[in-house]
Design a protein that fits this description.
Four copies of one chain form a homotetramer. The first copy, chain A, contains 16 helices and four strands. The first copy, chain A, is mainly alpha-helical and 403 residues long.
Chain lengths: 403, 403, 403, 403
């Protein structure tokens, strides 16, 4: 659905991550983990749990049918739980009574989305990391290459391309750091039962939630977060900020790739960036992808923030609206990170043209202005800063990787 | 993709309308209409046109493969045109040279989206119309039923439920009128060729565009609108306004359906609005759908508006971002209109409870305030206004239907 | 307040239009018109009305005090009405009892905002008109001047600068047409009384509203629109669309004004576009203003749309939020229209450089691609289209002016 | 400007913080700190620095005139620096040459905004802290008071009001923690000179920036962040998240304050929440303020995120747009925090009505559903969770206060 427009702005992995099959699989992981934890706490019998866990296999379910059924039910959880009970009942009438015990629709859906997001964020972070490392290489290599610094879209003075690359990279490194901090509390298991009190779990609720968190590799939030979406929304914000930083790089590359500027070009590759009408063109399609993401992500973030005043113990409309914004946000983000990672790794840099552009400006200025603002010696200062930033970013990336 | 969250907030028809198959079908309609019009203008041979038109059949194409290929190409048009040339070439080497002649990717994609939108808008308007007519019935039936008027979420005075319904309906009727006005110029054929000048059509461009408009049932805009998206964005705005008006109705119904208020209830129906945990609950899922749409649509509209400053003769990122916002907007809109149409047709109204709620407030007020503000006689005034509004709205809907 | 950042992105007139004094003046116009209409309908005595009308003079009120008092009261209307009653009471105890009779806070505030918007829209339309006419002159003058057509930020083929100007102008002309259509129903008097039923006006309500509409030069909506904001929101949308169209022009001009492109320059003017550090720079500050507006307006529109689901007969938070978005929207819009009107009137066009840029691209292409895509003869086709568009836009502007 | 609508949605302090006088004062603090640091680094003479520092006194400047002049100049910095040079020159021709040495407009404006934000955030955090502490008191006091838990706007089961309060408070505490983390890097001195390289500071740039950071109480970012706004945007996001959490509380309180529910009421206070027409009404105006903020803040955040792809070394339009969004965001946020802090401190809680509402639902249910879902014993479970949350939140607030 809508894949016509999303697919070339995202990645196959992202499309798959938010696909029906992957999401229903995550819901089944929740149900299995719930049964396992409830058996450990002696809330349900071990054999019933084993039976439920065995049934939580995606191939036993009609995924398309479940999704189709969700329209009438108002939620995907209702047909899934119903279907799981039937599958379990076919194995054991006894075990069927323990399916989804004490849990609610939102528990399984929020947790499944946390699992899917964890997966998607992993891929996103890897792509951002690749982009950041490519920038470090460029920053080092071109630290001393002078180029025009431009303000308000006009040449202003001289900088170095290495410093430009280091400045592009800094927000990616900081973004990865912030993302690491924010992902931890946000990717939490959801378990509150009908109204957030776990009243149907005989006092074992908190213990069960903690066990599920370990089992699923998610955080234990210590309480239900059904209508307290702040950590969750803060994570969306960080993704949005990183998309903005990728968009900044894409904006600059697209400007520097203009024919009249010709300082940069995206890597040439068979079948990429062609035109249906003009075979001579090479379009900066990686920048296009990142710029499109940077256009769209802020609106996804805004929608997630706007949905925060969720009524009482489960919202009417706000919760459902918020959930539906996540796939679009993450698909845009992954599209942007993948595109820029690849583009930066193969970026074609014309340092001679950069210098020539500086000279062109200098040539038309009065001598004193030329001397004051377009002396290429300024690039040595920039070069030092670029090298210092490379050192600190390299250290920061290493720290992230080892964390 | 992302259907997990969208499918229960939209309609099967809307999901289908923006599906890959339907969109590629619309692209093929464009290519066929182009060939037909170019043959009529003697720009290409009649037999070549006939061959191209015959080949523009969806079953000849690997839709999923085309979509997958669009990622690398940066646009769905490039693999489609390539694929169409191959299909035609298998029939006639001669004809293959005339495929997509003088057109560009954006021509086929914008026109295909206009066709898909025309289809989706038809369904949306029918649902809004149904909601408006259901409100007229309710407004007439309950014109004289007194109820609390509430301001800032507190009882303020007395109105009639009929007037409330007439007031809910008025923006739907106006919205249908505005939509009719706005859809006409917005649903335009796109034909500009590589850069909007139709330079590759031997001076026949404007004539060909006019013929295609008639053929496809779209407007002839008189020029290319590649990067002039104002009419198009204005249409998105009208859809957004209508979703807001549906959301207003849903907000009020959800408040009036609270247990403590109990003036209204959504129609009871097997399998709708149930809870996975609490079988006694009946959730207002139609309101949920419309409220979720009203949460999300403004951000879609904002994204479309924000994408308007499109660079030069074809934008880098802005155009692609804008396109990708449309399916989400229309799917939300259709979900809201369908849900509210059905809910309003079967709305359960408890006029006695409405009156009892008025009496409850009056009972606790000082006598003079009770007399000044909670005299049920006020509802006769409201009743007159409701009836007058029913008359004018009925006339307006009839005029729309006959237009 | 916040004028530090708004003032150079707007116009002095717009800042003034939404200033406290102007708004309180509009509120007093409402109160005077109400008294006048109620006297005509014999709802209040003529002498009381005359006294009230005389008192509705801005100089009798402590504007800053009223605004300061609105914080505690939750609305500016409450302190104003209280203050007006005091002023009238000082003249006539008898007349004071007829102040604001049967009206509610929202009546005076919505109507006052409609009056202020009417004023602001007049200035905005005049500036857009000026920009559109400047573009007609440019389109005519440069109809046959060839220039690069650029797609995805890369040279694609040849067009004419005249066609570019005509294409920039078309959305302004259409926007003025749409604005005219939308302003009429949106700029309506608000009169509903406490809950929209005009129950406190002895059956004279509709007649009084109609008289006030004539008096104030606003539309009579035929009912109260307290929580039915569709026409109002649709007007905001049109303003947003026009800002997007202005932003498109600014985007292109800023790209064409880059040093390396040098096809255009904003008019040079003492004290405009200077740099605090680099005296040699000339910054395109008109484009900056329009681009900033195009960045911001979509979010104002989204906020207005998102506020549409207003609860019952007066919303809690939504209404107040919506009102507060209007000044920002209109100030941005005016800033953009004024800046682009002036910039386009004095735009410096270097047609020789445009041609030289075409030649530069042609020079580096293979001969066949150069012939197929960069033949300057293409500009004659563009020239014809430009001239045809000038004719139709001239006619459309004339029709608007005489309407 | 626009204060008519903002003033009752914000606080006098916030209006003042973003006022012209306060902002120009912050700009002068930057210029003084720059001179002081440059003298310490021997870049400028000590006596010149002393003269400049002495002149950086707000009373020597025509604030309104500077703001008015910013329109033509395209930035407030240009007229301010010019005016400062004049003031200094009147004292010492020699010193005037050292004003604003090597700095650029964006340095002074960004730093001044950071100073103003630091001030505004202090007030915001204090108000959020007050709200959080009021919730701890309520959570403790009402830990064992049973009330309806409501999902999808329908009664679902039983919880305790204490748990509800603890759940409201948790995001405020987390928000204060996140804000503390995010404010540190975001509130950075800006010093990059014309193009971010500090080329005009004889290699002393980094040292000067570090000294200014200490002087002004801001962070030293280690480089210029002219067009790298990620930490800055991340701070805006956190403010937006906190406003969403305040909006959630306001949403619930407004629902629980409905006449038909009557579980809560905002504190009664002379002159607050009255109605111009209906003296018997008591409107929840604190909730109104927070809900309006929660409606508006997401759009401000989106605008700030959307402005991130800032061109090259200084953006055209994006930067200016971003700056102008901050005052609105912070004024909304402060309005919401102040309103909710006061409302929660004086919140009127009717625990008997809460219990009666539970009983009303239980009375109409089948016995088994009543037993399974509406047993008030469930509230003891909720009570335990509430008390545990009070303990952890108290500790967290204490840690924040001592940090």
């Amino acid at each position: 659905m809508s894949s016509v427009f999303e697919s070339f702005l995202s990645t196959p992995e992202a499309l798959d991550a938010f696909g029906e099959r992957h999401f229903v699989g995550a819901m089944l992981r929740f149900e299995a983990a719930l049964a396992r934890a409830q058996a450990s706490s002696a809330l349900i019998p071990q054999d019933a749990a084993r039976c439920i866990i065995d049934c939580c296999t995606i191939d036993r379910f009609d995924v398309a049918g479940l999704v189709a059924g969700s329209g009438r039910a108002g939620s995907l959880a209702i047909p899934l739980v119903k279907s799981l009970r039937q599958v379990v009942r076919a194995e054991s009438q006894h075990a069927a009574g323990f399916v989804h015990l004490g849990a609610t629709s939102q528990d399984v859906i929020d947790t499944a989305l946390a699992l899917v997001l964890q997966h998607a964020l992993g891929a996103f972070r890897a792509d951002v990391h690749r982009a950041a490392q490519a920038l470090l290489v460029l920053a080092q290599r071109h630290a001393a290459d002078p180029m025009l610094a431009r303000t308000l879209m006009q040449p202003a003075s001289v900088t170095s391309f290495g410093l430009k690359c280091a400045a592009w990279g800094a927000p990616l490194v900081r973004g990865l750091q912030r993302l690491q901090t924010r992902a931890l509390p946000a990717l939490s298991v959801q378990l509150g039962g009908a109204v957030g009190t776990l009243a149907q779990m005989a006092g074992q609720g908190p213990k069960i939630r903690a066990a599920m968190a370990v089992d699923l590799g998610l955080n234990d939030p210590g309480c239900s977060w059904h209508t307290q979406r702040d950590d969750w929304a803060a994570l969306a914000c960080e993704v949005g900020v990183l998309v903005g930083s990728l968009g900044k790089i894409a904006k600059d590359i697209s400007l520097m790739s203009q024919f009249e500027v010709s300082e940069l070009a995206e890597p040439a590759e068979e079948g990429r960036g062609g035109s249906s009408a003009m075979p001579h063109k090479r379009n900066p399609v990686a920048c296009m992808t990142a710029l499109a993401a940077a256009q769209r992500a802020p609106h996804r973030v805004a929608a997630i923030l706007a949905a925060m005043p969720q009524e009482h113990e489960r919202a009417l409309g706000n919760w459902q609206a918020e959930l539906a914004e996540w796939p679009g946000l993450m698909m845009s983000a992954q599209g942007a990170a993948r595109a820029m990672g690849l583009a930066l790794q193969g970026l074609q840099v014309d340092a001679r043209r950069m210098l020539a552009n500086v000279e062109s400006v200098r040539a038309v200025l009065p001598a004193d202005a030329a001397k004051e603002w377009f002396d290429v010696a300024f690039s040595t200062l920039a070069s030092e800063q670029a090298r210092a930033m490379v050192v600190s970013q390299t250290a920061a990336l290493a720290a992230l990787a080892s964390a």
